[in-house]
Amino acid sequence: MSMPLQTAFARVFPGEEYPGEEAACEFLVAEILMNRDIAADPKTGPMRSFRDISHAHDSITGILVDEEIREVIHDDGVLQDMMARASVLCWVLKHDHNLQFTEWLGNVRKLVHAMGLAMVPDEEGRTR
Q1: pLDDT (tens digit, 9 = 90+) per residue, 42-91?
Q2: Is residue 24 a contact partner of residue 9, using CB atoms and an 8 Å limit?
Q3: Which of 11, 30, 88, 116 is the most exposed place for a label (fewest CB within 10 A)?
Q4: Residue 84 and residue 95: Cα distance in Å, rounded?
Q5: Contact at 8 Å (CB) between 19 and 27?
């Protein structure tokens, strides 16, 4: 028994609006190719470990929640940059307390789809 395309899309991209059959196929193929290429590329190898990603997240958020350190930095641009980076790491770690990057990425995907475009891997496997 085969899994319907819409179900497969929802499992790979939970919470994302189903973009239609053609775009869903393109997104799923791009995801498969990207993951295959990341694992097979001797330069990049597999992704960083969960421990490395968690450590980076904890280091950045530790600074952001420490009032004394934030006062020493006292540069809103630097703090906003750190918050954006923390948001990406929260997304990678599937935290539900920081959805800034999740919302931004969803908006980018909707914009690309509304323009009649699809983000697909180029010849080097990077999504464009």
Answers
A1: 665 666 767 888 899 999 999 999 999 988 888 889 999 999 999 999 99
A2: yes
A3: 116
A4: 14
A5: yes
Give the span between the Cα atoms of 54 and 56, in whole angstroms. Answer: 5
Question: Token pair for residue 100?
Answer: 């800034």
List the Cα angle 49/88/79 in 5-degree steps. Answer: 120
Q: What is the pLDDT, as a whole number, of residue 27?
A: 83
Domains of the chain, by residue range, sit at 1-47, 48-118
> What's CA 19's distance to the chain center, in Å?
18
For 90-118, the pLDDT digits (tens) are 998 888 888 888 899 889 889 988 998 87
The 8-class DSSP code of residue 33 comes to H
Task: Count other C-beta atoms under 10 Å from residue 42's C-beta.
Answer: 5
Q: Is the backbone of residue 45 left (phi > 0), alpha (psi -120 to 50) or beta? A: left
